[in-house]
Every structure is written in C-alpha cells, then in structure tokens.
Amino acid sequence: MKLQSKRSLLTAAMVLGLGVAAVQSAQALTIVLDFVPGATTDINGVGTLSESFASWGFTGLDLAGVRAATLTAVNKDYLQYPTFGSNALSPLPNGKELNINFSLSNGLTGPGNGDSEWYYMAIGDANPNQGFLGQACLSCVRNSSGVASVANGSIFGSTLTDSISGLLGLASNDTQRINLLAGTVAHEIGHSLTLLHPTSALANPGDSLYSVMATGASPTSMPNAERVKDRAFAYSEFSSLIQSVGLRNVSAVPEPSSYLMLALGLAVLALRSRKAGQAR
C-alpha cells in the first residue's frame, strides 16, 4: 500500500474515532489506597504494618483480588452515586461525578494517572493495636471551600485491618468481607473531605438505613451487623462532598456499536484502497 493510502486510512481512523474513546483527562485530586508493605506512620502518629488477609477467610480472592475489589467498592461509593435523573433525592446532577480519583499503591508510589495532587490512605494492621477501625484528619484533604491543609503526598489516615478482622464473624461471603474493609476506607476518606459522624440513620441510596459515615459508637450507635451491607453516603453527605470536592463531566464510555462502526469504516477504506491499487 502506498504512503498516501496509509495516510488516508490513518486520517479516517482518527476522524471516525473522535468522540468514540475520549478518555477522561487527569484531574486535580487522587486518593491512593496504600496497602502498606511495611511499617508506615500517618500524620497523626498511627502506625501500620502489612496485612496479607490470609486469615480473613476469602474464598475467591487472592491478595491482589482483595486490593482490586476494595478499590472498586470505594470507586462505587464516590464515583457511581445515582444522579438526580435516576433518583429524585440525589443532589448529583445528570452527567456529573465528583472531581476525585482513586488508585492503588503498595509502598507510597504516586498515582499513574498523571494527577499532580495526591494523598495516601494507609491500609494495614495497627502498630501497635489501637482498638478502633480507622482514623483520618478532619477536612484536611478538602475543607468546605475545597482547600487542602496537609502537604501533598501526606498519609492523612489509616484503615486498621486487625481491628476490622474482629468483625469478620458477621460476614458470610467475600462480598461482605470487602464491605467491611472498603466501608471503613470510604468512611475515613469521607472525614478528610469534611464529613462527620451522623447522629442517626440518614436517607441514602444504599442497602442499609445507615450511611457510610455512620459509626457504631455515639452519636450514631449503628449496629455492627450493618457494616457488612453495601452502604452508601447519605444524600446530605454527598451534597457536602460536592461542595468540598467539586464536580466534573462523566467520562464518555464508547458504545459497542461505535467500535463496530469504526471497524466497518476502516474495512471499507481498506477495500477501496486495495481496488484503487489494482486499477493502477
């Protein structure tokens, strides 16, 4: 095939591909879920050690699977919240999502998405044991005006897997075990983004009357059995997240038919180019 024909195909592919696979550009903020490989200490002096999850009773997830499932669950809480179009109680406008990203790390490595601002949530066994499930600095990653008060790259909080493992008797499958872990991760991140413990159950789109920010202690006094459910942020809590984090347009996900049209277009162009070459 001649150079001109190749260029024609390339140009056509680019034209047909416009709007088909537009990838969301890197945003301003990433929270990195750091499954610590060794001794780590957060900005409040809480230490963590590596956790293999070997004693958690997962039946279909290895260590990599546990990490990936936790990331998926946290993404769901923050980036797959129902919009007003599907739920009239939701404060999230159609076509929008929170302006935040999440990624995985195993040793304080920065996100690979190109974000210039990121903070770490340490995930591991407490060193020494703390007696609580996790902690994070309040409104430190974003205050109500959308401003951070901690240095970029800080470990702003810790999720303590040895404390959470004391609740494993409530879980009967892998999904519930991930809910225990990811629910705590999402909860502690929520604190860093201005959210407080509610005083009672709150209206929300999840599987529990209690929101992600509910706690088993006062002021919420949530029954621990609720922790294995797929909880969600309350509508009022998500409204606060919108104020502190901001919104962006939802990334366009290509429809399978778009890929088919692109493939067919390239096939037609290739056939025409071959016929033109044979006619010369």
What report would you give on this structure?
This protein has 6 helices and 9 strands. Helix 2 crosses helix 4 (174-192). It has 2 domains: 3-19 and 256-279; 30-249, Collagenase (Catalytic Domain) (3-Layer(aba) Sandwich). A hairpin with a 5-residue loop joins strand 2 and strand 3. The chain has helices at 3-17, 63-79, 161-164, 174-192, 235-245, 256-279; strands at residues 30-35, 40-41, 47-49, 96-98, 101-105, 118-126, 134-136, 155-160, 247-249. The radius of gyration is 23 Å and the shape is globular. By secondary structure, it is of the alpha/beta class. Pfam families: PEP-CTERM. This is PEP-CTERM sorting domain-containing protein. Keywords: Signal. InterPro entries: Ice-binding_C (IPR013424), MetalloPept_cat_dom_sf (IPR024079).
Quick overview of this protein structure:
By secondary structure, the protein is of the alpha/beta class. Helices cover 32% and strands 14% of the residues.
Task: Give the CATH class of the largest domain.
Answer: Alpha Beta
Would you list the SSEs in sequence order as H and E?
A: HEEEHEEEEEHHHEH
The CATH architecture of the largest domain would be: 3-Layer(aba) Sandwich
Number of domains: 2
The CATH topology label of the largest domain is Collagenase (Catalytic Domain)
Helix-strand makeup class: alpha/beta
Distance between the termini: 12 Å
Report helical residue fraction.
25-40%
> Strand portion, in percent?
5-15%
- What's the tally of helices? 6
- How does the major sheet shape up? 7 strands, mixed
Could you give the count of β-strands?
A: 9
Mean pLDDT: 87
Low-confidence stretches: 1-26, 253-262
